[in-house]
């Protein structure tokens, strides 16, 4: 199983890539934890995604 995701997104010119990546990772982690509550026990420290992005 792949351990990464590829996205093609369009962000406003005033939004930095790093801010957008942080927002996307934060919101998606919250949504995943809401939908799959059992993952909270596995990822209790809320570090679902890697700290970096490429």
Description:
With 54 residues, this protein is an all-alpha fold. The protein has two helices and no strands. It has helices at 17-35, 39-42. It is elongated and about 40 Å long. The mean pLDDT is 80.
Ordered list of secondary-structure elements with their pairings:
Elements: H1 17-35, H2 39-42
Please tag this protein with its features:
43% helix, 54 residues, mainly alpha, single chain
Summarize the structure.
By secondary structure, this protein is mostly helical. The protein has helices spanning 17-35, 39-42.
Q: What proportion of the residues form beta strands (DSSP E)?
A: under 5%
Average pLDDT, all residues = 80
Structural class: mainly alpha
Cα-atom radius of gyration: 13 Å
> What is the chains' assembly state?
single chain
Q: Give the low-pLDDT segments.
A: none
Largest sheet geometry: none
What helical percentage do the residues reach? 40-55%
Number of strands: 0
Total of helices: 2
**N-to-C terminal Cα separation, in Å?**
19 Å
Principal-axes geometry comes out as: elongated
N to C succession of SSEs: HH
């Amino acid at each position: 199983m792949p351990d990464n995701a590829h996205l093609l997104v369009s962000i406003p010119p005033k939004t930095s890539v790093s801010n957008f990546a942080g927002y996307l990772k934060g919101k998606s982690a919250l949504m995943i934890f809401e939908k799959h509550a059992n993952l909270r026990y596995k990822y209790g420290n809320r570090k679902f995604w890697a700290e970096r992005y490429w």
